Amino acid sequence: MLVQALRLYVAELAEEGAGWFFGVADKQLGLAINAIHAEPAYRWTLPSLAERAWMSRSAFAQKCKEIIGSSPREYVTHWRMLLAVDRLKNSSDPVSVISPSLDCPKARSAPLSNVSWELRHGSIVARSSILSTV
């Protein structure tokens, strides 16, 4: 079943030509993505991620956009939100604990509070608008 799901996912990505899967497969971007996943709370910057990938900042940013389909900042934010939603679903940690643990400043934690309320009240729907507002 998992293999079938991966095949479908890869087939969809191949049509779009961009996505996380292609980023991980890329030797340079894969280094940066692995670093983000290993340390999601680290205050990642374009220079620090480009350094991990052994690339210039401009080349790294351009390659991210082309291969992953988003900027490095958008990718980091999206990954953190996925982790936050997972923690909200599977733990009793409040937003006030989760937000700082993922380097999400208080000013940007309002969407996370909305997700928290929706999760706790059984009405969560995967929405890109929630993820893109952080």
Automatic annotation (TrEMBL):
It comes from the Bacteria. Residues 30-99 form the HTH araC/xylS-type domain. It comes from Vreelandella sedimenti. This is Helix-turn-helix transcriptional regulator. Keywords: Transcription, Transcription regulation. InterPro entries: Homeodomain-like_sf, HTH_AraC. GO terms for molecular function: DNA-binding transcription factor activity; sequence-specific DNA binding.
